[in-house]
Write a structure and sequence with these properties.
about 40% strand; Jelly Rolls; five-stranded antiparallel β-sheet; alpha+beta
């Protein structure tokens, strides 16, 4: 009787060990669930550059997400972080520099990334369309660059901490004050780190309705 119990216990232990090993293998081979979403890709970057040729003028660019968002498959984009980089660009010589190289006076540089169209306008920080923003002050006299209260990059994190987008476009809006040096413009680049994710159908619909409502 004792040998039979020992034999049964050994078989049970081996079965549990095999099951645990198989589960660990499957977890390593398949995307891990993130609450409401499952990651379909590793992190990658989407970039968009916007030229700010005229001082104190708001410019807008669009970022096409058609290759990443799929309504039929409940596929969306999980944004993990957004960074903004400002540069000076001499359009005559095609030489790139820091913003100070393109300015001949003090300037404020600001940018916002939005989930919906704001018709080429900056929006307040409590607007639900706002994904990320950043602002820089440039002191031309003392050659000092400072960041005010609007710090960047905006880091959301992975999984449910990410900002989910199911719209087919994002919008980059930016402006820069200050006098430009001859043949120079200011350009801003948004660098968006993200993943393609598969959402539950009800979650995809909820996000879609929210982001559609923001556009009205």
């Amino acid at each position: 009787m004792g040998l039979l119990l020992l034999y049964s216990y050994t078989i049970l232990s081996l079965s549990l060990s095999l099951s645990l090993s198989l589960n660990m293998l499957l977890q390593d081979r398949h995307p891990h669930p993130w609450g409401m979403a499952v990651a379909k890709t590793s992190s990658f970057f989407i970039t968009e550059r916007l030229q700010l040729a005229v001082a104190a003028t708001v410019y807008q660019g669009t970022i096409d997400l058609g290759a990443y968002v799929d309504a039929g498959d409940a596929q969306g984009l999980a944004i993990e972080s957004v960074d903004f980089i400002w540069q000076g660009h001499n359009t005559s010589t095609d030489v790139w520099s820091n913003p100070g190289g393109a300015l001949s006076g003090n300037a404020t540089l600001a940018a916002q990334l939005m989930s919906n169209n704001a018709n080429t306008a900056m929006i307040p920080a409590n607007d639900h369309r706002l994904i990320a923003s950043g602002e820089v002050y440039y002191d031309n006299t003392n050659e000092i660059v400072s960041v005010a209260t609007d710090m960047f990059p905006d880091n959301f994190g992975k999984g449910d901490q990410s900002y989910y987008v199911v719209n087919d476009q994002l919008y980059l809006v930016a402006a820069a004050s200050g006098t430009r040096a001859a043949n120079n413009v200011i350009e801003v680049t948004a660098r968006i780190r993200c993943r393609i994710v598969k959402l539950q159908q009800k979650d995809w619909m909820s996000i879609a309705l929210q982001q559609t409502a923001q556009d009205n």
